[in-house]
């Protein structure tokens, strides 16, 4: 099992941010991680299922990650799921549809990630795939909790891919690796085993 925090996002010039190969890659990534996280706005706008799915993988998923919603002050409605859901908030109500045993509410102060990451670690979560949006991704960067960054950009130009990834991420990655992938390019930085949640928490303290 990988032991890291990974930030994953996709971008494109025409609004269609992904392609079949990238969907398969993302679902393969999802089944390798203990948990998938999104920000409260992504949860409310996109209603993501945050599952690894057979129709994308071409086979049954090996396992499912638990769900983590960094709700902050955003009220969130949580639909029932086969996996546990952690809702990290600072007091906003969330609606749990009568399936309270699947839901764990964890506190946070402002956008400080340390307390909720410590709590997730206490619940046995050792690896976290953060799938956006931009506000949450930037918090992980700023607070030093990103071990690996992976960005798929659907475009035909490598220069355009790097430019769009910089725009999406908000800054330049020093050790950026770029390779053709599917209908675009995959941009990756960091090392999968460089640092896990435990070491990340130690280093940030
Ligand atoms: N292209 C892609 O791959 C991709 C992936 C995901 C999402 N998206 C898109 O991104 C958009 C949403 O992105 P967004 O940037 O507006 O919102 P977001 O990052 O999804 O959510 C931001 C909210 O999360 C809450 N939050 C809780 N803990 C936080 C923390 N530690 N740091 C930062 N925020 C925290 C905050 O609520 P409070 O400030 O109220 O406390 C914040 O307003 C959607 O349109 C979605 O479709 C794109």
Which helices and strands occur, and which strands form pairs?
Layout lengths: L4 E8 L7 H13 L2 E5 H7 L7 H4 L8 E7 L3 E2 L7 E5 L4 E2 L7 E5 L6 H9 L5 E3 L3 H9 L5 E7 L3 H12 L7 E5 L2 E7 L6 H8 L1
Parallel strand pairs: 1-8, 1-9, 2-3, 2-8, 3-5, 4-6, 5-7
Antiparallel strand pairs: 9-11, 10-11
Helix pairs in contact: 4-7
This protein binds NADP nicotinamide-adenine-dinucleotide phosphate.
NADP nicotinamide-adenine-dinucleotide phosphate binds next to β1, β2, α2, β3 and α5.
Give an account of the 3D structure.
With 205 residues, the protein is an alpha/beta fold. It has one domain: Dihydrofolate Reductase, subunit A. The chain is built from seven helices and eleven strands. The strands form two sheets. A nine-stranded mixed sheet has the order 7-5-3-2-8-1-9-11-10, with helices on both faces. The radius of gyration is 16 Å and the shape is globular. 36% of the residues are buried. The structure holds NADP nicotinamide-adenine-dinucleotide phosphate. NADP nicotinamide-adenine-dinucleotide phosphate binds next to strand 1, strand 2, helix 2, strand 3 and helix 5. It comes from Rhizobium oryziradicis.
